[in-house]
Design goal:
Blueprint: H1 3-16, H2 22-25, E1 42-46, E2 58-64, E3 82-88, E4 91-97, H3 108-121, E5 125-134, E6 144-152, H4 179-191, E7 197-203, H5 212-220, E8 225-227, H6 231-239, E9 243-253, H7 254-260, H8 266-289
Parallel strand pairs: 1-4, 1-5, 5-9, 6-7, 7-8
Antiparallel strand pairs: 2-3, 3-4, 5-8, 6-9
Helix pairs in contact: 1-3, 3-6, 4-8
Bound molecules: hypoxanthine (HPA).
Amino acid sequence: MSERIRNTTCFIRSRLNIAPHRYYTDMPGGAVETGGLPAPQVGIVLGSGLGALADSIETIGTLDYAEIPDFPRSTVPGHRGRFIYGRLGGKYVIAMEGRVHYYEGYPIRDVVLPVRVLCCLGIETLIVSNAAGGLTPLFQVGDIMVIEDHINLIPNPLVGPNDAVLGERFSDMTQPYDRKLIALAHRVAREQGFSLQQGCYVGTTGPSYETPAEVRYFHTIGGDAIGMSTTPEVIVARHQGVSVLGFSLITNALRRSETSGSPLTHAEVVEASGEATPRLCALVSEVVARL
Ligand code: HPA
């Protein structure tokens, strides 16, 4: 395992007093320490729309990204930067409040470092969320889409030497998002009185929003929603054998803005994500409880 991933994982573990996971104990000369709190079972990336879930976590400890040596920090206003370790729905979880994006200028390996570390801490399931533009005319602002598949148009984070301790050189991506978890999400949403959309997320670099021609193109190639995050994180989680569940909160309808000609702003995206947040938070809490 790369020094950086190992050192960062060890630092976070020791600061949050989390017991070592097999990545360490299996390795020749691996960690011999025992004790500490249980490894988190679930990792949650609190993207736009899930930020408020942080309040539902019975917090055991938090760690600001700024305190972690050589750790990427978001430059986007409104994105906090810290890990929250605690309990949610009876499970030990670790949440990332804030993520970095490729468009901020970080190398792709830095962008995925936090998720790499969550996987090394021992999570079995990763739940990711994002704000996204709706590519299909069927989606409305405020809809929640469970991600069924994705098209990654951000550089692939597995390019470069493969770390065989983490995963295989040629990583399987036939089921990037776990079908059983998707079915569970639909079931829970129905019980909570709403229905989820389901579709394919296109991950692009941004940071400019799409032109009308690009909107038509991304829809034609199979995309239902588009955003600037998530796909590299999912690629590394799958590389490390972690199951993934993902949600896109539809903050703007691109097909409509294409015809209306009204400009799309980040403020609009942030505002729209706020409205659907309680639904998404309730959904994710209950899904975690039933894992
Ligand atoms: N395009 C790209 N990323 C986004 C959008 C969009 O329309 N909305 C929220 N994130």
